Automatic annotation (TrEMBL):
<dbReference type="Pfam" id="PF10672">
    <property type="entry name" value="Methyltrans_SAM"/>
</dbReference>
<keyword id="KW-0489">Methyltransferase</keyword>
<dbReference type="GO" id="GO:0008168">
    <property type="term" value="F:methyltransferase activity"/>
</dbReference>
<dbReference type="GO" id="GO:0032259">
    <property type="term" value="P:methylation"/>
</dbReference>
<feature type="domain" description="S-adenosylmethionine-dependent methyltransferase">
    <location>
        <begin position="25"/>
        <end position="309"/>
    </location>
</feature>
<protein>
    <submittedName>
        <fullName>Methyltransferase domain-containing protein</fullName>
    </submittedName>
</protein>
<dbReference type="InterPro" id="IPR019614">
    <property type="entry name" value="SAM-dep_methyl-trfase"/>
</dbReference>
<dbReference type="InterPro" id="IPR029063">
    <property type="entry name" value="SAM-dependent_MTases_sf"/>
</dbReference>
<keyword id="KW-0808">Transferase</keyword>
<dbReference type="GO" id="GO:0006364">
    <property type="term" value="P:rRNA processing"/>
</dbReference>
<keyword id="KW-0698">rRNA processing</keyword>
<keyword id="KW-0949">S-adenosyl-L-methionine</keyword>
């Protein structure tokens, strides 16, 4: 990270802020490596507050310049015009991802809005706030295709795909994630959007030990698979993904479709295409969903890969 690159960061913020409204968005994505010297820096707009994330330690000069620049930003007429309330900085590289308020007031449990849907976030406790912003177009894709569909949401986290599916008219959604606290947040997200929870199932189970329950609740018209790249003791991408893919034919309806995702820079989309061909050859690759423009990456194979397959 280079302190002399920070003017580029603030120039980008100044260009993005006039277009900020009450929707949550990534407004600076240094991790796409398009900004030399800023590759471990991001900034997210949460509707009324700006959250800056550092992914690696920086020296004192960089930290002081970053903080001073953010303080200055908060005093501009542009900042006041958009009704901004505060700026927070999260140190994602440290254990517990500690959070500090740079200026103003920060709501640590804000309700964010994406495409008109509400999501409960939580800042300052975990690395992830509760919604992966690069998956915005994936949630849109599902919402547009969910009418009267039965949906299986594997590795559901806080059920963002489930919220989009029910909003899109899904007949039912089955969410599976071993983190029960995340599923509790998922229930809250559905309640925030006044959804009928009788259409939503929450399974707080290890997927690999729950195929019987998952199968019994099927079959499914749409299956979403959005796993972590690695989860100690429960999921290793290159080893365990194939164990899921081989189950898909028995879970899907005859015209079923799959959205299979991977967000590891260590593998390309060919990993998913080749593994699907090996484990479930009746499912044919159709397309890769575009990523939001704000997540542009110098190497598209290093960014989120969300691939659609169908029988």
């Amino acid at each position: 990270m280079q302190v002399n690159a920070l003017p580029d960061f603030f120039n980008e913020l100044n260009k993005a802020l006039p277009n900020c409204d009450n929707e949550i968005r990534r407004i600076f994505h240094g991790r796409g490596r398009l900004w030399q010297g800023l590759d471990q820096l991001t900034a997210d707009w949460l509707g009324t507050q700006l959250i800056v994330n550092l992914f690696k330690p920086v020296d004192d000069e960089f930290m002081q310049s970053l903080a001073q620049g953010l303080q200055h930003l908060s005093q501009t007429e542009q900042w006041k015009h958009i009704g901004a309330q505060g700026i927070g900085l999260q140190h994602r590289y440290e254990h517990g991802a500690p959070f500090e308020v740079i200026t103003g007031n920060i709501e640590l449990k804000p309700v964010a809005i994406e495409n008109g849907l509400k999501y409960q976030l939580e800042l300052g406790k975990n690395q992830n706030s509760g919604l992966f912003l690069d998956m915005r177009l994936g949630r849109e894709w599902l919402q547009q295709r969910a009418q009267d569909k039965a949906v299986l949401n594997l590795f559901s986290y806080t059920c963002g795909f489930s919220v989009a599916a029910i909003e899109g008219g899904a007949s039912k959604v089955v969410n599976v994630d071993m983190a029960r606290a995340s599923l509790t947040r998922g229930r809250d997200n559905h309640r925030l959007n006044q959804h009928d929870l009788s259409k939503v199932t929450f399974m707080g189970h290890d997927i690999f030990r729950s195929w019987g329950k998952i199968t019994k609740a099927g079959p499914y018209d749409v299956i979403v698979i959005d796993p972590p790249s690695f989860q100690k003791g429960s999921f290793a991408l290159t080893k365990d993904y194939k164990r899921i893919l081989r189950r898909l034919p028995s879970l899907l309806t005859p015209q079923g479709i799959v959205l299979a995702c991977v967000n590891s820079p260590a593998v390309t989309q060919d990993f998913l295409i080749d593994t699907m061909l090996e484990e479930a050859p009746e499912l044919i690759y159709q397309q890769r969903l575009a990523n939001p423009l704000e997540f542009a990456d110098i190497d598209e194979q290093a960014s989120l890969k969300a691939l659609v397959f169908s029988r």
